[in-house]
Every structure is written in C-alpha cells, then in structure tokens.
Amino acid sequence: MKDESSKKGKFEIPLFDLSTIAKATNNFSIDRKIGEGGFGPVYKGILEGQEIAVKRLSRTSTQGENEFKNEVIYIAKLQHRNLVKILGCCIEDEEKILIYEYLHNGSLDSFIFDDTQSKVLDWPKRFHIINSIAQGVMYLHQDSQLRIIHRDLKANNILLDRDMNPKISDFGLAKICEEDDIGAQTNRVIGTYGYLSPEYALHGLYSVKSDVFSFGILVLEQCPEDRPSMSSVVVMLNNEGVLPQAKQPGFYIERNSNEEEFSLNQNANVTVSDNPITILDPR
C-alpha cells in the first residue's frame, strides 16, 4: 500500500501489520509478558521462526509519539554489537509497537539487584559487561554516524544475551548532539533520578558527559569537566596507558550565576530521589 511504503521510507525499518504481531505473541497473552517499563508492556514472541521481544505502547504511557519515533529512527541508524537491534515496528490504528531481537537473560538489574542472580556475576563477567557497555556508549558519542546522548542509561536499560553480552536499549529519550555542541539545556528534565547527572537534574543541562555520569565509572566526580571521554574510559578499563592522578571528589555542584559555570561546594549536600529535589544548606 502507498501509505505503508511512505511510512517505511520514513522509519527505514520493516513494518508489520497488527495481526502478524498479535499472532506472534498469542494475542499479547499475559503468559508471554516478560516485563513492563515507561513505554508499556513487553512480550516474548515468535516471528518467522525467530524469538522476538515486542514493546507495545500503553495508552497510559508517560512516553508518547515523539519517544516512539525517537526509538525507531535512532536505533535504525545505529549498528553496534553492544546496542540492541530493532527488527521492525507496527503502526496501525492507535497501536504503536516496536519489535526487537530477544535477549535471553533479560535486564542487568535483575542480576545485580538480586541476591541469588548476583552470584552469577563473578568479576570477569562484571568486567566484561562494564567494558562492553563502555564500548557501546563510546560508539554513540563519537563513532556512530549520529552523535547520540542516550540520557537514560541505567541497569534495566542494559539487556543481556545468552552469553551475558550486554546491549544498550531504550532510546526514547535520546538526543542528537551536533559535532561542535558541548551540551544543551532543557526545561523538561526527564529520566531516572539516581542516574541523572547533577547539572541535568538541577539545571536541565545535558551533554555526552551526562551519559558518563550515568555510566557510573566516576560516580563521585560530579564536576562535568573532570569526567573523561568514553574513549578514555575504555583505555582505563583495558589498562592501555598511564591513568591520570585521582582528584579530590566533589560532593555537590552549585551553579555560579555570574560566571555561568559550575564550582564545587564540599560543605553542602544534595538529595535526589523520586521525590522533588531537596538542597540542604550547610549549618
């Protein structure tokens, strides 16, 4: 159909009709449900003999059409072994559905936050996962055809295949950063508190360094200028060079309104949670 061809050209990935996806998931059976996030429920299915994961946009989802398009357009243009592969989508009536490769070991958070599952992750496996995620983020920041800030890196957005190889997923909040851009500002701070960099959570400022904070290698470095590039992180993880001398960690970042820059204030604390942000003044 002409309309379908137009959509396919726009999204650059295969389009499937709703009946095909419904059949693949046994009509979105509760028995096939394998998870749920801000986008909506996720189902396991079989499509053309291949296991798939199906994300179905919920009508009550906090993520809407823009996030759906974000996910489709970005992932379709990105190719890396540590990024999840999108196999197609379905746009029919009010349905918006994404089809991904199925990753057998689920999300990383189901391992690291579970007393039993965490025992599976010995140090070699943990190191492999950390290093692979770093490679994926480096690709997003500097090696892909698009310069991408993920903006929602967290444990349940890292999926694991049969061999515990990690793949970064969920690009609904991702942004393109132009080559000469060092960052941008938004009035709409979205993401997961606890993974947001302080300058983003407090002032809406985000850059590739926001992803570095979320990655968590230098979680105590809260000053953006002190965070390395992802290529530096990969060098550190593989011990390919001399590591820089560690700096005194910062405890809090405050915005200097006159100089429009960040400075460290080691006598103050900040609490960031799912609740409104609270800044505690020093006594």
What topology emerges from the helices and strands here?
Blueprint (H helix, E strand, L loop, with lengths): L1 H10 L6 H7 L8 E4 L4 E7 L2 E7 L8 H13 L8 E7 L2 E7 L7 H4 L10 H21 L4 E2 L8 E3 L5 E3 L6 E2 L7 E2 L12 H6 L1 E2 L1 H8 L14 H8 L15 E4 L4 E4 L4 E3 L6 E3 L3
Antiparallel strand pairs: 1-2, 2-3, 3-5, 4-5, 6-9, 7-8, 10-11, 12-13, 14-15
Helix pairs in contact: 5-7, 5-8
Structure description:
The model is unreliable at 1-9, 217-221 and 256-283 (pLDDT under 50). This protein has helices spanning 2-11, 18-24, 65-77, 109-112, 123-143, 198-203, 208-215, 230-237; strands at 33-36, 41-47, 50-56, 86-92, 95-101, 148-149, 158-160, 166-168, 175-176, 184-185, 205-206, 253-256, 261-264, 269-271, 278-280. It starts with a helix and ends with a strand. It is an alpha+beta fold and 283 residues long. The protein folds into two domains: 2-101, Phosphorylase Kinase, domain 1; 109-215 and 225-246, Transferase(Phosphotransferase), domain 1 (Orthogonal Bundle). The strands form six sheets. It has a five-stranded antiparallel beta sheet with strand order 1-2-3-5-4, sandwiched between helices. A two-stranded antiparallel ribbon has the order 6-9. A two-stranded antiparallel sheet has the order 7-8.
